Amino acid sequence: MSNELKIGIAGLGNVGVGVVKILARQGELLSRRSGTKLTISAVSARNRNADRGIDITPYEWCDDAIDLARRDDVDVVIELIGGEDGPARALVETALSNGKHVVTANKALIARHGESLAKLAESKGLALNYEAAVAGGIPIIKALREGLAANQFSRVYGILNGTCNYILTEMEETGRDFDDVLVEAQQLGYAEADPAFDVDGVDAAHKLAILTSVAYGCPVNFDAIHVEGIREISAIDIAYAAKLGYRIKLLGLTSKGENGIEQRVHPCLVPQKTPIAKVDGVFNAVVADGDFVDRTVFEGRGAGEGPTASAVLADIVDIARGTILPTFSIPVDEMKSQPTASMLDHFGAYYMRLNVLDVAGVIADISAILRDEEVSIESLLQQGRKPGEAVPVVLITHECREASMMRVVDAIEALEVTQERPRLIRMENFE
Amino acid sequence: MSNELKIGIAGLGNVGVGVVKILARQGELLSRRSGTKLTISAVSARNRNADRGIDITPYEWCDDAIDLARRDDVDVVIELIGGEDGPARALVETALSNGKHVVTANKALIARHGESLAKLAESKGLALNYEAAVAGGIPIIKALREGLAANQFSRVYGILNGTCNYILTEMEETGRDFDDVLVEAQQLGYAEADPAFDVDGVDAAHKLAILTSVAYGCPVNFDAIHVEGIREISAIDIAYAAKLGYRIKLLGLTSKGENGIEQRVHPCLVPQKTPIAKVDGVFNAVVADGDFVDRTVFEGRGAGEGPTASAVLADIVDIARGTILPTFSIPVDEMKSQPTASMLDHFGAYYMRLNVLDVAGVIADISAILRDEEVSIESLLQQGRKPGEAVPVVLITHECREASMMRVVDAIEALEVTQERPRLIRMENFE
User: Fold this and answer.
1) Which residues of A touch B152 (CB under 8 A)?
2) B-chain residues within 8 Å CB-CB of A331?
3) Do A299 and B300 touch (CB under 8 A)?
4) A197 contact partners, CB below 8 Å, separation of at least 6
5) Of the four, A311, B320, B356, B358, which is 20 to 30 A from A286 by CA?
6) Which residues of B touch A311 (CB under 8 A)?
């Protein structure tokens, strides 16, 4: 084997350690598969002497990660520092400027600066690969960019955050509330000490921005995403959803319609029978609906040392095999910005839970509000009677405009019998 | 765009028509994605004047498909003739010999002659792509060869035949028997007039042989596969399986163990909660268990005009982008034959349904036979009592050697109280 690909790794957290482990255990297999000897030349991390369970003494050490981008014995830099700016961005820019390929697991960096970095990579004929940035070990970027390349996508959606999916699954299985399950997830290492990034939907939104760009050939546009997290999902909503034949999942969805691209991350009622509803715990899944291939589903672990390192090394194998593709499938110079569809124009069904006094005429008042906004009811659930006291009323609407539903919520909140602002959760039937 | 890739299509059945339709509808998009203009130069089919709903007059016509392999205006031949020998094989060999890339949906051809064809392709630096041959629109070959390339696979398995999955799903949902549902499947176009190829497991076995080669880097070895179809699955077994928390699926499974490679296609009880159990109707799914990525699941349509044509064109886009990889991931010259594990050494759990006279001591006799073969029982189901008459007894074993179970079946069949040969179905728990 005459070819060799020399690797520099920046960041030796669990993913970096996973990369080193895979190359140690099956570097020879990867070399046979790629026709190229894969060698780690140099590494960098915050702390040289941390106990990582691997021996890094065979590799050159760089105190400053950016030095990896300047070494003659590095052909490709693996960026595992994280963060959308700062040293990660500087490293990637310097590496590409210096003619090094880049592989990264950094979703924030690609979601925020993907366009300019792709432009730089493409101008130099270099790879900027980021399979590990979206849905961990699932090769979804490759699927959209290559395996499903013959298709236009009506929509791409998925469970993109394992922490949220774990919490929602646990809430459903145990009937416990969000705060309670979050603490447990933190103890188990499934949630960070500061969980905001995950549970507020930001992490899923970073991934969605990238999927949108690959699927629709438009520049990444993170700021166009409507983002809601799962903090306000309560056990009672999960229970009602189950009664109605649904489960609640945090989804990232991107679709292209008359009004442009609609990107949204929010909790969603999905029918129990649909594939995405059956994805439990820390697993991720992405569904791509192509005009010729129809529905395809990709499921696997969305995080963790092994799965993420597996994705990083798939990117390395591609480079070793000489597969250097435009970052987002279509070269940046040929990409076209697309209009952003306003969420007020979103058209879909809604689950709404009201807390109202059980007095004569209350359902008539609510029905009148819905009628005035031309929102029709598919089903209504009112269990038990407590005359004069507060009772929950749950209803599901037919498809309608989001703007109408927002006015419905305001109007119902203003009723004298209403005890708190109605809780609204969007639904997707995926038919 | 200066590059052009000129295509010749042999076979204008539904997949060929799908390929023409995709290029007509979104050829411009595919050209942007691949950086190459994709053009159909010539086509060939049995009947020039068949009504296909597409206009083929813009393309050169070849009465004999093999002429496509000799044309100067063809860079890549798409072989959609089918059949493991005859004109399909001749066309592919001639095309490769003449320096043309080949894309095929022909699973029988690759399963039977993959090694020699790959050798020819690799010697010429040509692509021999066959994504459409396995699991239709699901990009599973790409996933194993590229997206999961960093992994060793403990096993790869899946629902590889949509006809069988449709029949089993219908049998379960309606309680009807095989023959009845088969007729309906034929009327709906989900099963061929001669269904043997599908329902006897041959089609799934062709696909499994290919998956094995890609996953384990060994030459395709179709003859090593243990193949059983679904004709003997009865409604009663499906009902008992459901009662025990399982569904019956026709699976293709390949795994690598101490005894070598074990390839098998047979009906299987799988726990209702496992992802593969939830794949219904004509959908296919493949699960790859990698040592670093863990479990990954790929689901989509396994057949049909659009999905299969989508896979064919993904292969074309790869060629247009210059991605020419060894046919089975590792070059044929570096592949190593692996020993075949005997089915008698298969180690697993079994479902067994007996039809025995309800007389004193029958369970004791059966238990003694199992004990003598060191097969232990996980659960036993005997519903109702009909003294002196035949009753079904269903039992599930713990894991044991297949050779032991075969002796158990023989011994139970020989008992005087036994009314018919015990029905045995293998189980997989996928833990």
Assistant:
1) 26, 29
2) 35
3) no
4) A203
5) B320
6) 147, 293
| Catalytic pick among A100, A107, A119, A207 | A207
What's phi and psi for B302, nearest 5 deg? -90, -5
Three-state secondary structure along chain B? CCCEEEEEEECCCHHHHHHHHHHHHHHHHHHHHHCCEEEEEEEECCCCCCCCCCCCCCCEEECCHHHHHHCCCCCEEEECCCCCCHHHHHHHHHHHHCCCEEEECCHHHHHHHHHHHHHHHHHHCCCEECHHHCCCCCCHHHHHHHHCCCCCEEEEEEECCHHHHHHHHHHHHHCCCHHHHHHHHHHCCCCCCCCHHHHCCHHHHHHHHHHHHHHHCCCCCHHHCEECCCCCCCHHHHHHHHHCCEEEEEEEEEEEECCEEEEEEEEEEEECCCHHHHCCCCEEEEEEEECCCEEEEEEEECCCHHHHHHHHHHHHHHHHCCCCCCCCCCCHHHCCCCCECCHHHCEEEEEEEEEEECCCCHHHHHHHHHHHCCCCEEEEEECCCCCCCEEEEEEEECCEEHHHHHHHHHHHHHCCCEEEEEEEEEECCCC
HSE-up (13 A, CA, CB side) for residue A93: 12
Identify the segments of chain A with pLDDT beneath 70. 1-2
> A15, A293, A334: best mutation site toward chain B, by most B Cβ within 10 Å?
A293
Q: What is the ipTM of this complex?
A: 0.96
Low-confidence ranges of chain B (pLDDT < 50): 1
Confirm if A15 and A78 have CB atoms less than 8 A apart: no
Closest Cβ opposite residue B306 in set A29, A292, A314? A292
pLDDT digits (tens, 9 = 90+) for B20-73: 999 999 999 999 999 999 999 999 999 999 999 999 999 999 999 999 999 999
Give the DSSP H or E segment for A109.
helix A107-124
Interface contact flag, B329 A150, Cβ < 8 Å: no
The nearest alpha carbon in chain A to B328 belongs to A33
- Name chain B contacts of A30, Cβ cutoff 8 Å: 149-150
- DSSP category for residue A418: B
Residue A318 tokens, joined: 């591609």
Chain A residues closer than 8 Å to B143 by CB: 139, 142-143, 147
| Residue B396, pLDDT score | 97
Phi, psi of A116 (to 5 degrees): -70, -35
Q: How far apart are CA B298 and CA B247, in angstroms?
A: 19
Stated pTM of the model = 0.96
Instruction: Kindly report the nearest CA distance between residue B289 and chain A, in angstroms.
Output: 10
Query: Closest partner residue to B149 among A217, A278, A314, by Cβ?
Result: A314
Q: Do A318 and B293 touch (CB under 8 A)?
A: no
The position carrying tokens 């070399």 is: A31
The answer to whether the beta carbons of residues A65 and A44 sit under 8 Å apart is yes
The secondary element (H helix, E strand) that includes residue A158 is strand A153-159
- Beta pairing partners, A129: A103
Of A32, A148, A310, the CB nearest to B334: A32
Cα angle, residue B182 at apex, residues B176 and B185 outer, rounded to 5°: 110
Q: Could A317 and B18 be called an inter-chain contact, meaning their C-beta atoms sit closer than 8 Å?
A: no
Q: What pLDDT score was predicted for residue B382?
A: 87
DSSP, collapsed to helix, strand or coil, labels residue A322 as coil
The whole-angstrom distance between A232's CA and the closest CA on chain B is 28
Cα A359 off chain centre by: 44
Check residue A2 and give its pLDDT.
Answer: 60
Residue A301: predicted pLDDT = 97
Interface test with A, best of B146, B169, B273, B325 (most A CBs within 10 A): B146
Instruction: Tell me A134's DSSP state.
Output: S
Give the pLDDT confidence score for residue A385 in this predicted structure. Answer: 81
**How many alpha carbons lie under 13 Å from residue A429 in its C-beta half-sphere?**
11
